Amino acid sequence: MAAPLYSIEKTIVYRKLDNGLQLRLLPIPFSTSVSVATQFRVGSRDEITGQTGYAHLFEHMLFKGSQHAPGDSYAQTMSALSGQFNASTFFDFTNYYLTLPSEALELALWLEADRFIRPVLSQQTVENQQATVLEEMATTIDNQPYVRDAMEFLLSQADGTPYGHSVIGSKEDVSSATVEQLNQFHQRHYRPDATQLSIVGTYSDNTHAWVDAEFGQWQNPQPALKVPSLATATPLAPKNKQVHGEIIDARGPWPAVLLAWHTVGQQHQDAAAIALLEAYLFQNRASLMKQSGLTDPEQLLTYSIPLSMDLMGVSNLVMVPRAKTSLNQLVTNVQKMIIDIADNGIDDESLHQLKANWLNQALQRLDRPSQLARLLSATQQRDTLTPLTGPWERINTVTTAQIQQVARLYFADNLVRLDLLPSWYIRWTKSLLEVLPEGVSDTLEESVL
Q1: Is 233 contained in some domain?
Q2: Given this model, what pLDDT does residue 240 score?
């Protein structure tokens, strides 16, 4: 099943420019479009005190004018070409990606280089994008029940690490950012030796010359970039302790519980086993959480998006209970599942299926050039020449003993629990429904829903 990963990987053309920029080209015959992805090794973890949110804010700025494409020229040009473009910022990286007709690739590379190397920030554009980010913050965080307090609670668990503040930053820091500070942020962090550029689709024989012409003269600032290798990286040790907190939000429609476990960064030797265990417990349709709720479920909803950063990881699970089920019962159910795996492991058939599911997801990305370009630009240092097969080979070597070991090390004894509680009258009603006969609570729940 993994053969396509190996065969496609052999067609990747890899180059490293003299300035350190890493280039990967993957031809897709008979395609009429090309996808370009550029990832920079800069994210919120690189921000200093008083400048939280700068990586995300600067991402916005790069769509608002450069030396040769002022104002909204970039967006207008892409729209005229029927191009699709976007960007995202995370703790460890910022990426930019676009898809457009193949014949426009030379123009696209010129535009990308111009905005990455020569952005033009004015007071007006900074103020406009500050307002945009603050509106995004209000819409996605502050105006949603539970989200702000839950986010700050989880971030407090990483206090003292580079991951102790949110990617979007604080209102105060975003509002006070200046043109000069943002220009300094760009000069420090947007550099060729922190850049991976990937081109996937149909491209011209002149593409190498275009890349050299647009990116080859880009100079690195001082000091030299420090990229920790697997041998020298210092992972953040997981906190092996129980934490239990609660927040009350009058806007909350119903109680819920958020569970989290500190794990390890994506370069750690246990990362592959943890990824499979997360899928087994929480994520796919065959997960233990889904299977436990197929008949007479105790939860209305489960939701999990594990976070895997360079130096640490966080597994998480949000559960919304049925009227008849308490938050304590939901937590007990999850802990029983984890303890069972820590004590007894999983069988070979289950592990085989987990690997097959992981591989199927990897194969699906091969049919999506935009996702494939982003994947290539997110290549870890150890997978420089094996961006597709390196991660798979780590997954494929995971054993049932390793699954049992990571369950014991990272999940059995370090649960972070946060109860998300609505107003007192909803909590009181919920408590009453928990002690009523099951048929009665089910009927009332159905009426409310």
Answers
A1: no
A2: 61
User: Do 161 and 297 belong to one domain?
Assistant: no
The token pair that represents 390 in the structure block: 């390196």
The dihedral sign for the CA sequence 383, 109, 182, 19: positive
Range of the domain at 371: 243-448
Sheet with 33-40, side-by-side order of all strands: 13-16, 22-27, 195-201, 33-40, 94-101, 84-89
d(CA 193, CA 359): 31
Q: Are residues 205 and 303 in the same domain?
A: no
Helices marked H in 270-416 — which ranges?
271-278, 288-292, 327-344, 348-365, 369-377, 389-396, 400-406
Over residues 1-39, the pLDDT tens digits come to 999 999 999 999 999 999 999 999 999 988 999 999 999
How many alpha carbons lie under 13 Å from residue 323 in its C-beta half-sphere? 20
Q: Which residues contact 3 (CB under 8 A, 6 or more apart)?
A: none
- For CA atoms 225, 175, 170, 73, the dihedral sign is negative
* Residue 221 within a domain: no
**Number of residues that this document lists for the chain:** 449
* pTM above threshold 0.90: yes
Whether 220 is in a domain gets the answer no
Q: Is residue 429 part of a domain?
A: yes
Cβ–Cβ under 8 Å, residues 154 and 260 = yes
Return all residues near 269 (Cβ < 8 A) that are at least 6 apart. Answer: none
Who contacts 102 (Cβ-Cβ below 8 Å, separation ≥6)? 31, 32, 33, 34, 201, 202, 203, 204
Residue 338: give its domain's CATH number. 3.30.830.10
Total domains present in the chain: 2
Q: Supply the pLDDT for residue 444.
A: 72
